[in-house]
Design a protein that fits this description.
heterodimer; A: 215 residues; mainly alpha; Four Helix Bundle (Hemerythrin (Met), subunit A); 7 helices; B: 634 residues; Cytochrome C Oxidase, Chain A; 2 domains; two-stranded antiparallel sheet; 2 strands
Chain lengths: 215, 634
């Protein structure tokens, strides 16, 4: 066993060789793509970060039984619904971009990514505009704090998603990605879908489940 | 190299340049925003410092070169074929730059964490000097509060957690037969965020108002009202947390996707299992401490009301969110140690691990139960009373899987051929001390007891028995065990044994009496104490100084052995796991050819047993029916 167990690289004579050839091909012990798995695990972490903020929401709203929104405050429900549709449709265009990449349709890939970027940026712009015109600020009440905290956390994730997507877009326009190799679209795409799904929860609990909401 | 090339290429020159640029950018940004918003005064020292704490470290990480490849990738430039120039260490300079080799990163981690260990240890020495007699000795009460707070934060976030990451970084890819981690550049980034966090926490002493003085727990609303130093903790923890999440994610992907052929989950060494489960805990729990510190930061910097009772905030929420991370963190600081001890006990007692599968399952059980016990830190906090008894029961329940592990180690030692070398001594020291810490832990789970001893030295004794007698002893054990593999040299066995006995004896003399003064009611986290505790505190302080000195034996041994120790064989302990089947230190890319695993990792004493082989076509790869994976009949 001992002789078989010692690799050739252990002998000094072979050291020079090591400098030239790269590492041995790693064994693939799972069918899951490492990049994909890494992104999924990262999303678990992100879900838990949202969960921490939702815990704060739970303590203010349920444990302390605070009115929602705080008395005298107005939530722009209609704008919020319109903005939500903008964000949700960007998930569709993201899917379109990825499917185009899978089929080798470069034009669809570029257009899909560009539309997604545009829709995402619009969402973020509307959100910032909402902040400017809201009747309450983050320091006014605990409800305001939670509102700005959760929407701000989500907004930061939209911004990170846009950054990742802009990487993918630039690469798409510079001729990268093919029918076989499109992880650079797929992985940020998964993150983008996560950001959209997170909005479902943020939007429902902050806007729809309120005294002015429709739920 | 010209100066221009030095300043544009990754490295310390560019990092040094990026620091003032980052500072100016951050200061300009915050001043501009304040001016636009009409906040008076526009130029505000606290606001600039807080922004700098976020921006300057990012600028440093960019300057040193952590993001170079990703920027290149993101800008759509054609990717360079990997020339492996950032991989491996040819001279000592390579340890001081962004390096993608998991072996280099492992050493970087271990050395960095021991630097912060020394720093935190010195703070503990000052704390003990202050407590040597009643009244005020050396420092005022505020500095004292800062000292124990920074001591605990450094020990937890900059020593115990990352020291385990360091050992695992070095060993795990070798153990599973992989050429490196799954994401080497992310691995480098994880490492470089660590010194950032540590320097930030230690630098808090220079902040106006002194270091953060709220303990490592930073309870609100105390932490939302203390001076600027608190921000150094709040933001430092974010960097340490991001580092540990990224590393954990990396471990999980590496272990899932890069195992050698034939290395099924139930053939993995228990250290791999331990880090797999720890990484699950980190990925799931760490965002909660990030959240809790975001809340504190938002309250402090933007005047939000998460914990402002007057505006409808909820103070108790801080403790729920904080402990939902920080209780699992206790297991993050212990499970990798369990793995190390399993390796060492089995190897140095020449016996298969008793009940291998139960060892793996008990790790999973600890992960699951670890999320159900957080509120046992809050029995006297005024939380909902109905939560108390369920939390007491789950806390007692979690002692069961831990007990399984203790008995398994004892059964592994039973009738083994015990080689009482330093790693095994530390492992045995760990088992005894951890049992004592576990017993006081069970006492602390019982509500009537904890109501009496909460916030006394009994709690201090308990956490030092589980974290020093537990975690740190396993770190020492692991360092001694893998020292020959990491450095290619043997440590001095005699000095190792002296180190063990000195630290074992003085550890008990330091922390043992704390149980007594704690039960008598001496409060923790106070610079002064009543006359009645004077005698025992004098004993504790004197012992603690000897305890501190015992570390010098370790330091001397490590430095001298690394420089002049005798050459180590590839496999000085005759272990079966894969990391011992390559040279010491291992070749640049770990393996020439990926090995094939054909059996369990601990088949000591089984004639002809092999764990991994480098043969081209080994006869059997798949586990055979009835294969003895770590099973043993004494």
């Amino acid at each position: 066993m001992e002789s078989a167990a010692l690799p050739a690289g252990a002998a000094p004579a072979h050291e020079a060789e090591h400098e030239h050839h790269g590492p041995p091909e790693a064994n693939r012990s799972s069918r899951v793509d490492p990049q994909l798995l890494g992104m999924l695990l990262f999303i678990i972490s992100e879900i838990m970060l949202f969960a921490a903020f939702f815990t704060a929401y739970f303590f203010i709203r349920v444990v302390l039984d605070a009115p929602w929104p705080a008395e005298g405050d107005q939530l722009p429900i209609e704008t919020g619904i319109a903005n939500s549709f903008i964000l949700f449709s960007s998930s569709g265009t993201m899917h379109w971009a990825l499917e185009s990449a899978r089929r080798g349709n470069r034009l669809g890939l570029k257009l899909g990514l560009l539309t997604t970027l545009l829709l995402g940026a619009t969402f973020l712009g509307v959100q910032i505009n909402e902040y400017v015109f809201l009747s309450f600020g983050p320091a006014d009440s605990a409800q305001g704090t939670i509102f700005y905290g959760l929407t701000g956390l989500h907004g930061a994730h939209v911004a990170v998603g846009l950054l990742l997507l802009s990487f993918a877009t630039v690469r798409a326009f510079r001729g990268h990605f093919s029918r076989e190799e499109h992880r650079g679209v797929e992985v940020p795409g998964i993150y983008w879908h996560f950001v959209d799904i997170a909005w479902v929860f943020v939007f429902s609990s902050l806007y729809l489940l309120s005294s002015q909401g429709i739920l | 190299m010209t100066l221009a090339a030095k300043l544009t290429g990754p490295g310390w020159w560019r990092a040094a340049l990026s620091l003032p640029i980052g500072f100016l950018f951050g200061a300009g940004l915050v001043t501009g925003v304040r001016a636009l918003q009409g906040i008076e005064p526009a130029i505000d020292g606290e606001a600039i410092t807080t922004t700098s704490l976020l921006v300057v470290p990012m600028a440093f990480l960019m300057g040193i070169g952590c993001f170079d490849y990703w920027f290149r990738w993101g800008s759509g430039a054609p990717t360079v074929p990997e020339d492996h120039s950032g991989h491996g260490a040819r001279t000592w300079h390579d340890y001081f730059r962004v390096n993608t080799d998991h072996k280099v990163i492992g050493i970087q981690y271990i050395v960095t964490t021991f630097v912060f260990f020394i720093l935190g240890g010195l703070m503990a020495m000052v704390v003990r000097a202050e407590l040597a007699a009643p009244g005020s000795q050396l420092v005022d009460a505020n500095t004292y509060n800062g000292l124990f707070s920074v001591h605990a934060s450094l020990m937890i976030f900059l020593f115990v957690i990352p020291a385990f990451s360091g050992i695992a970084n070095y060993v795990i890819p070798l153990m599973i037969g992989a050429p490196d981690m799954a994401f080497p550049r992310l691995n480098a980034l994880s490492y470089w965020m660590l010194p950032v966090a540590g320097v930030m926490m230690a630098a808090s002493f220079f902040a106006p108002g002194g270091a953060f003085a709220t303990g490592w727990t930073a309870y609100a609303p105390l932490s939302t009202e203390t001076p600027l130093g608190q921000n150094f903790f709040t933001i430092g923890v974010q960097f340490a947390g991001a580092s540990s999440i990224a590393t954990a994610l990396n471990f999980l992907v590496t272990i899932i996707t890069m195992r050698a052929p034939g290395l099924t989950f139930f053939r993995m060494p228990l250290l791999v299992w331990a880090n797999f489960t720890t990484s699950l805990l980190v990925v799931i729990a760490t965002p909660f401490i990030a959240g809790s510190q975001f809340f504190v930061l938002l309250d402090r910097a933007l005047g939000m009301n998460f914990f402002n009772e007057g505006n409808g905030g909820d103070v108790l929420m801080y403790q729920h969110v904080f402990w939902f991370y920080s209780h699992p963190a206790v297991y993050i600081m212990m499970l990798p140690g369990f793995g190390i001890v399993s390796e060492i006990v089995s190897t140095h007692a020449r016996k298969p691990v008793f009940g291998y599968r139960m060892m793996a399952f008990s790790l999973m059980a600890i992960v699951l139960l670890g999320f159900t016990v957080w509120a046992h830190h809050m029995f006297v906090s005024g939380m909902a009373t109905w939560l108390r008894v369920p939390m007491m029961l789950t806390t007692m329940l979690i002692a069961v899987p831990t007990g399984i592990k203790i008995f398994s180690w004892l059964a592994t030692l039973w009738r083994g051929v015990i080689h009482l070398r330093t790693p095994l001594l530390f492992a045995l020291g760990f088992i005894t001390m951890f049992v004592l810490g576990g017993i006081s832990g069970i006492m602390l789970a019982v509500i009537p007891v904890v109501v009496h001893v909460s916030d006394t030295y009994f709690v201090v004794a308990h956490i030092h028995y589980v974290l020093f007698g537990g975690s740190v002893f396993t770190i020492f054990a692991g360092i001694y065990h893998w020292f020959p593999k990491m450095t290619g040299r043997m440590y001095n066995e005699r000095l190792g044994k002296i180190h063990f006995w000195l630290s074992f004896v003085f550890f008990n003399l330091t922390f043992g009496p704390m149980h007594l003064v704690g039960i008598d009611g001496m409060p923790r986290r106070v610079a002064d104490y009543a006359e009645q505790f004077a005698t025992l505190n004098a004993v504790i302080s004197v012992s603690s100084f000897f305890f501190g000195l015992s570390f010098l034996v370790f330091l001397f041994n490590m430095i001298m052995s690394w420089r002049r120790g005798s050459q180590a064989d590839a496999n000085p302990w005759r272990a079966h796991t894969l990391e011992w089947q390559v040279s010491s230190p291992p070749p640049l890319f770990n393996f020439d050819r990926i090995p094939t695993v054909v059996g369990g990792p601990y088949e000591y004493g089984v004639p002809g047993a092999v764990h991994g082989t480098f043969e081209e076509r080994p006869e059997k790869i798949a586990p055979q029916r009835g294969e003895r994976v770590g099973a043993t009949t004494p």
